[in-house]
Amino acid sequence: MLYSAIFPGMGQIYNRKYWKLPLVYGSFLGCAYAITWNNTQFTGYRQAHRDLLAFMGGDAEAVSWRNYIVSGKQFPTVQNWEEMQEKWKASDITWFQNTLKSRKDYYNHYRDMSIFITIGVYGIWILDAYIDAQLFDFDISPDLSLRVEPALFEKTTSTPRSLGLQLSMRF
């Protein structure tokens, strides 16, 4: 377990479960991809939302929000806030601002969830290494038998001496 906690997959190597290594590293690569993808999308939408607010405040240079205009909507190209107010409907401006914010929040949530899932995957592989190490010497015998033997029960103060059957199962 300690080996797997220090370096992912080392516990599986120590337990000689080499076939699990592609699963270990594949799961970590998948988690890293999810974190990277969600973080890239989050930072893009965050910057676009900030730039839209700056553009609405009068900064004509803040234009990264133009890359995030939804293709299904027809938004005329504008050079400054006053022109945007003239050419765009007020409801479209509000809708676009809310869309950028909600997508920013969406990707932020899933980036954070990807990080928690990665921590969970790390814990599962540590637990897997620990369980494999504990069960390494476990006897897996094909002898699954039920034994029926006669038994002699000694006399006690409340029962007389008696005969019976003793059942024992071996796993």
Overview of the molecule:
The longest helix has 45 residues, at 90-134. Helices cover 57% and strands 11% of the residues. Helix 3 (21-56) packs antiparallel against helix 5 (90-134). The protein has helices spanning 2-6, 10-14, 21-56, 81-87, 90-134; strands spanning 145-153, 162-170. Strand 1 and strand 2 (162-170) form a beta hairpin. With 171 residues, it is mainly α. Strands 1-2 form a two-stranded antiparallel sheet. The protein has one domain (2-138). The chain has five helices and two strands; from the N terminus they run αααααββ.
Average pLDDT reading: 86
Distance between the termini: 27 Å
How many distinct domains?
Answer: 1
Order of H and E elements: HHHHHEE
Radius of gyration: 33 Å
- Tell me the number of strands: 2
With strands numbered from the N-terminus, the spatial order across the biggest sheet is 1-2
Strand content is 5-15%
Specify the biggest β-sheet: 2 strands, antiparallel
Class by SSE composition? mainly alpha
Number of helices: 5
Helix content class: 55-70%
What is the overall shape? elongated
- Low-pLDDT runs: none
Features:
single chain; 171 residues; mainly alpha; two-stranded antiparallel ribbon; 5 helices; 57% helix
Outline of this structure?
The chain is mainly α and 171 residues long.
Write the layout of secondary structure elements.
Layout: H1 2-6, H2 10-14, H3 21-56, H4 81-87, H5 90-134, E1 145-153, E2 162-170
Antiparallel strand pairs: 1-2
Helix pairs in contact: 3-5
